[in-house]
Write a structure and sequence with these properties.
alpha+beta; NADH Oxidase; 15% strand; globular
Length: 213
């Protein structure tokens, strides 16, 4: 009986150990996603080195795999890496902004400052104005890309300020170069590049959450 008892104990230990390892593995895998979400920050300082194309391909592929209502995929993605084009947009945006808000002259009058924080890559998202869900869909696409970037330690910052300029008559020439489909407007931009800063997380308000049970 004694050998049988020992064998039984060993079997229990091995079985428990395997289950424990399985649970640990699953927990680690789940935490990778959670950790990426909780570690992402808006990055406003970038290294000049351009993002590797292989990494950018992953980011964009994750973006277009976002959910969309009825799978309409009502978005248009424009990846700008031409630095001269970005500088031209920035100059036009600065003039447009200062004309409307003279108090912004100190911030945007400096050519070293930019709305995209001099990131090497700037991504613009367009949305289908005939699809009432398209803005929501573009938001999910944007977040997919930002979280994919974070998983590779690539920084991003969501940019909205330049959209008014690009949709205004003053920005028409720049917008035309984006070659957006008919009935599309710009929704948001994303600056992206290798991080040159590691900001702390800003406080979040859990009181925004309420349950209806």
């Amino acid at each position: 009986m004694r050998p049988l008892f020992i064998i039984t104990i060993i079997a229990v230990i091995l079985t428990t150990g395997c289950q424990g390892n399985k649970e640990k593995t699953l927990m680690e895998e789940n935490n990778m996603t959670v950790e990426t979400i909780l570690s992402r920050r808006s990055i406003r300082q970038y290294q000049p080195e351009q993002i590797k194309q292989s990494e950018l391909d992953i980011i964009l592929n994750c973006g277009i795999n976002a959910p969309s209502a009825m799978n309409k995929q009502p978005w248009a993605i424009r990846v700008i890496q031409n630095q001269e084009f970005l500088k031209e947009i920035n100059a036009g945006f600065a003039a447009f902004t200062i004309a409307k808000n003279p108090e912004m002259a100190e911030r945007f009058g400096n050519p070293d400052n930019s709305f995209y924080y001099n990131a090497p890559t700037f991504i613009l998202l367009g949305y289908d104005t005939t699809n009432k869900f398209s803005l929501n869909d573009c938001g999910m696409l944007a977040l997919n890309m930002e979280l994919a970037a974070e998983s590779m330690n690539i920084g991003t910052c969501t940019i909205g300020c330049v959209i008014d300029f690009l949709e205004a008559p003053e920005g028409a020439d720049f917008r035309a170069k984006l070659n957006l489909p008919e009935n599309y407007k710009l929704s948001i931009g994303i600056a992206a590049g290798y991080k040159a800063q590691s900001p702390e997380a800003k406080p979040r308000d859990p009181n925004k959450i309420e349950y209806i049970r």
